[in-house]
Amino acid sequence: MKQRNYLLGILFLLWGVVAGMASPVQTSVNTQVRYAVQSPFIASLISFTIGTCILALLTLLVDHRIKVDLKMIPRAPKWIWTGGMLGVVFVTSNILLLPVLGSALTVVSVLCGQMILAMIVDHFGWFGVAVHRLNGPRAAGLVLMIVGILLIQHF
């Protein structure tokens, strides 16, 4: 059973790596859309519109419905509705950063920001996440990531 869990963990890590590979491609593509439509905000809107259409199709194919129980809205924590807004910040920031920083530095600077907040979220167990305390090795990994950003920036 342990080996199966280990292999499943490796599979999920690889899935994460592959999903992460989409980020520089998405950012590059969206930046080209920005140049075509002459607005980072319209480019983000186009990206989200296409994404919404794809998600609607996938939802119909997998869940066989697009229906939400609206009664749960007032009962749900208010912060759960911020995901779309945070997606706008992420996508639009990438579109604006790529021409200035380049693909590699854009991706690693955004990733570093993600890691900093992810470690804080893990440490305190915010948003219903299981607690994973910040410790020496985790902090060292973050410091190495920051050093890596500095190396990428200067070379």
Number of strands: 0
Detail the poorly predicted runs.
none
- Overall geometric form: globular
Termini gap: 46 Å
* Separate helix tally: 5
Q: Tell me the structural class.
A: mainly alpha
What's the rounded overall pLDDT mean? Answer: 95
Write down the secondary-structure element order.
Answer: HHHHH
Q: Helicity, in percent?
A: over 70%
- Rg, nearest Å: 19 Å
User: Could you give a short account of the major beta sheet?
Assistant: none
Q: Tell me the β content.
A: under 5%
Summarize the entry for a quick read:
The chain is mostly helical.
Structure description:
This protein is mostly helical and 155 residues long. The chain has helices at residues 2-37, 40-63, 83-101, 103-124, 136-154. Helix 1 (2-37) crosses helix 2 (40-63), helix 1 crosses helix 3 (83-101) and helix 2 (40-63) crosses helix 3. The protein starts with a helix and ends with a helix. The mean pLDDT is 95.
Architecture blueprint of SSEs:
Layout: H1 2-37, H2 40-63, H3 83-101, H4 103-124, H5 136-154
